[in-house]
Amino acid sequence: MRKQPKEHVKQSFALVLLVVLTVGAIAGPTGLLAWAENSEVLSEREARIAMLTEKRSALKNRVNLLDPNGADPDLVGELVRKDLGVLHPDEIVVTLEDE
Fold it and tell me: What pTM value is reported for the model?
């Protein structure tokens, strides 16, 4: 008994759809081949987040030290000397490069 042509079209369409989905699952942007690349990108971004979190903590500490109600005198003196160039005649300034 022969299958009707309509049935052949349905089966062919289902087969093509299955092949397309399989190729997408393997080689697509979220497929198995991209898994290693995505995990590498994830680890890079986690490292960047850790660095930015550390930098944010340092900036938050500096902001707390510059609180108008109780600013740290050492930090205020450092900023005045750096930004305004105010020095006593007997002072010597030694600048250190940030690493």
Answer: 0.53
